Protein 1
Amino acid sequence: MKIKEFALENIPLIGLVILMILVSLASPSFLSVDNFLNILRQTSINAIIAMGMTFVILTAGIDLSVGSILAFAGAVCASMIGADTPLLVALFTTLAIGAALGAASGSIVSFFGVQPFIATLVGMTMIRGAVLVYTDGRPISTGDFEVANAFYELGGGYVAGIPIPVIIAGVVFLVCWYVLNHTRMGRHVYAIGGNEQVAKLAGVNVSAVKITVFAISGALAALAGIILTARLESAQPTAGLAYELDAIAAVVLGGTSLMGGRGRITGTLIGALIIGVLNNALNIMDVSSYFQMIAKGGVILLAVVLDRRGKTTE
Amino acid sequence: MTALLELKGVDKAFSNVRVLQKVDFVIKAGRVVALAGENGAGKSTLMKIITGIYRRDAGTMRYRGSDVQFTSARQSMDAGIAMIHQELNLLQQLTVGENIFLGREPTDRMGRIQWPVIKERSRYWLGQLKQDISPLELIANLSIAQQQMVEIARALSMNAELIIMDEPTDALTDVETKILFDVIGHLREQGKGMVFISHRLGEIFRMCDDVAILRDGAMVHQGPVSEIDEDELIRHMVGRELSQQYPYDGVKPGPVRLKVDGVSAHGVSNVSFTAHAGEVVGFAGLVGAGRTELGKAIFGANPTTAGTIEVDGAATRLRTPRDGVGAGIGYVTEDRKHEGLIQAHGLRSNMSLIGLFRFSGLLGALDKKAEKETITGYIDAFSIKTHGIDAMVSQLSGGNQQKVSIAKSLLAEPRILILDEPTRGVDVGAKREIYNLINELKSQGLCILLMSSDMPELLGISDRILVLSNGRLTGSFSRDEADQESIMRCTVAGLKEATVQ
Ligand SMILES: Nc1ncnc2c1ncn2[C@@H]1O[C@H](COP(=O)(O)OP(=O)(O)OP(=O)(O)O)[C@@H](O)[C@H]1O
Ligand SMILES: [Mg+2]
């Protein structure tokens, strides 16, 4: 009984473990500390975006604009670093721009009653357009001032042997977990996704909460943009293309319902890891990138179907 | 007389919690059997076993002379069993007609849906219930009582042999209840078997032939209604004697707490009244009289178009429920399922939603220990039957959900409490507890507005009764001068006026 309950509650985790066992049987080079750190580093960008996405999806929304925000934030950040802006100023400005872009989508959703799908689809297109205009379609270099070297650390540096992007993702996770599980804001997020009418009648400021979740999603996409830019040492105008899909996949793999009101941030982290392990394994096993897409889609489908079945056989 | 349906030795448990044990139950053709019992006694569960929604763990079921085992609602429906569920099961974004024929749409040989037939049949069945509702109206635009009538029409339209009604009168006023009873009378003459569940005991004696009583999942009595009286019925239900159904507590009212002056809003026109601290003001009226709309207008959930509202002498602008909560107003909705509780969430998060500020400190960090203590306290005080503080609300019995809904409002410690049908679906014992609670809140100085369709209840515990009709105030009675008849006259007064105009 206990075991069965645990299993039903933790299908994503079990999926991850099974996946790792299978991969390590197929390819011995998978099991090494270096490879694990590598996976974690590769996963961190998607994980950060997906955690922001979790907030939005919990309110029964969706954010398609994260990939574009990532690129925009990266471009702005790169040009600031290239102009010798102090590091902290550049970082906070970039995060603020991401939050503002998210808040704009949230406002459109709240005040004009536009579906999140549509509002952020428009945002995705317009922001990507803005990126192309701003960069003129060319990469933006981060220049060669002193500050650039400090900036690169954010993407490629280590602290105590752990990649800095992984540490950042870890901190983001802890903060998100705390907010969702231990604050009033977190309860309001779940309540709105569970039943918006009930939340409204309970005095929850539904518009403010919705704007906030989109702002969180935007800020975290910008953070991912900073890390990616630091890692590549330049901002690419096409950065983050289709990243929203991997982020949504991670959230769904983690057991969060697209209908809102149900899900956990831990699940999202595991979902992101599943995608990360899968990418890594397919690479190690030398599967062509075309087949990789097919395999990835198949695994996501399988996981979601299993999760559904687990929940309905109650 | 032979049994239409007979259950023997039925057991049922949900995740190891026993809900029914060794239940025997007989339904006869041409008779109405009442199924009575406290909240959570297992009435709805037993009915869902009959209709194949739940699977019984043990026991047999004979229907029209042969053993049956339904595995879906569909099968029992095809076998001629219709059920009106306790919780409304209508699709809000479909029309009345579409809902009535959902899953049974009449089609022609090409498989095309015959809309004219749906319209005509819907109109016919609604007409039997004396309801002037268009089959093309969206369910979402109907009041709860009207939705209930649509549910009833849906069950009738199945031409079933056995009709199960799980608290059908719950959302109805006397007028609609009378109409329903006339219809039940006809069905009885046609030889149909019926099960009738209600927490309004008077209805059982008025309408039913037999009564069966469940207590804690066991059948403790079954026999003709004529051989039992109300006290005995209650004794069987709760297992002990209950004194005085409507405890009234004459508290000396304090200063004016709420002043409503010339308020108009959707469904409300030019209503003025005052209510005091330590006073229970009852609101009577027919379905659609504007009681819910008035309650929502005062709370901020129904924007006012004219008039002013003062709380404790200070004019307040109430434009959203948030303003209402901020002004110290609590509102308990009549529509628990859509407006009151998040069905798929746990009891804890539902109950503390409005009152979260009580447990939150810096940056909204929650003191979960204090939250847990408070909520456990309310669960005990209200004797809410649940297998845990995080049990999903949808798994609680209807009456227990109602208690959670009231507790949820109280957690925010309001000064004014608006109760819209607070005892809907609540058993006798728990009703008493709610009345006692109302009295206690009253003595603590709360100002309580009580909207209820249960006239004895309104007369029993209000200090003053205001009557609404067609959105206007048409009468005001002190406790001593109020009686059923004069109130009834006022409830229809506005209607006549409206037709004259
Ligand atoms: N799906 C379910 N899962 C778990 N427990 C359930 C479920 N449905 C009902 N129960 C439990 O079974 C018991 C009986 O519930 P039931 O709904 O039959 O009561 P009831 O007699 O209809 O009460 P009421 O008068 O309040 O409607 C309750 O304790 C309830 O919590
Ligand atoms: Mg019930």
Protein 2
Amino acid sequence: MRLSTLCMFTLITLLLASGCAQRPGIKDSTTTEDGRFRVTWWQTPPRPIEANSYFELFVEVEDLTDDEEPYDLRFDATMPAHRHGMNMVASPTRFTRDSWVVRDLLLHMPGEWVMTFDVTDQNGVLHRASETVILD
Amino acid sequence: MCMIAAMTVCLTLAASQTSDAADRLHAMAKSLSPVPPPPTNPTNAFALSPAAALFGQRLFFDPGLSRAGDVSCSTCHDPTLAFADGKQVAEGLNTGTINSPTILGAAHHRWLFLDGRADTLWSQALGPIENDLEMGSSRTDAVRHIAGNEILRAEYTALFGPLPDVENLDRFPVNARPGRPQWEAMGTEDQHAITSAFVNLGKAIEAYERLLQPGHSDFDRWVASIDAGTSSTELMSPAAHRGFGLFAGDAGCRQCHFGPMFSDLEFHDLALPPRDPAAAPLPGRGAGYELLRKREFAADGIWSAAPGSTKARRAAGARIGPEHWGSFRTPSLRNVAKTGPYMHAGQFETLSEVLAFYNTLDGQVRRHHHAESVLQPLNFTPDQLADLEAFLKALSGDPPAILLRKPRRSNGTEPPKSAE
């Protein structure tokens, strides 16, 4: 009994330590800094983002206060430690009222990237959500 | 019971940590080898044609494509020097400002030229023919050279159909290329016919270049042995093994030199000292991006076989930022022991000079405050630098000998149909 509990515990610790629990690109969610919108994103098809490999993001934006249709979404990603961004222009294409597809994304180096989702509301006010992903 | 269980777990953990480290290194090794076939290029319908590759190989070694008949692609991309030229900067009809890179593995690159001003190999190949620093000819004369040679004409027409009537010098004047009065004097249809044939030459050269894979190296043989379960350490010297550990670990090289080509295929500014301190600094990607925007032979242009392809769309989506000014594409490190001098302007003569630079970053010149900052001085010992160098030297391989020279008729391929 005790052995199997211990083994279970070890296994879970190892899994967590090796980062299997959460890989960037599967599905993630974050809210804009002011709490107005929830941004949920995943890679289509869902799989971890890899350094220097083109990918496509599906992004859903949910208005948590007014249930209003977001006006626009912009996406960008930078490597703050290296002081550079992506080498391609991200152009989100609207898919439905609340969702976008961003094709041909490329995070060309391993390391820490900050992805930003800028949601503009119907009054032209910008709400920023950001998420750090670490690629190895 | 409890004690035994705890000890087992501890031992398992300890063992799994060392084997974890080895596994990580092996996984990293496998992300660098073997070299897969180059990515497809739908913008060139002849990219995979063996007949086009044979014709392209003929063109590659043919000085007849230059103005005075004395410079061929192989002048600067010499097969005996791993398709580089051993010179600090290229010397064709005139002396250039850029070091001739190897073209082994060039088909893997996302952007061609060190500033990425071309997005396909076929469009790249058309540049040197009309560049006055290199071959100094014109597209009209290049097509005329094909028409005037029995073998070339036969191979061309079998692949691409009839050539324009370039013997008619009134319609197709000598030296006619865009920007010259001789070209402006030509009819639009004749211009179109010439450019169309010229593009075909580039597409054949690409078909040949795609076969120029970097070749199997000691490193590749070692990586293959991991999968075979032997992980033989005889395949690569102990120094190279230690060097690989540093390369993949503390040295941080794999931030930019990763994947089977040991390159992220993108652009960085190492703030290298200029070759000639008096000369104006080279803009690198800053200018390459502008040239890419204005290029005549774009992946999404009228000469492309697939202007709507993913490749074309991605090329059109390139972004330029202030950090790109003065940046150059990360070179492949495959065959690097054979391709000196190093860096875009041949700043360093030897690999140990390159590593001495990475070790201290001495001589770095920051040209603007938007520059990226990735490099940190390594502060390695001389022994560690020697290990890194041994690893770089384990990345050399040879492509098949049959690709290294002007093809002979009896190449195991169909003899060309005789000219009509």
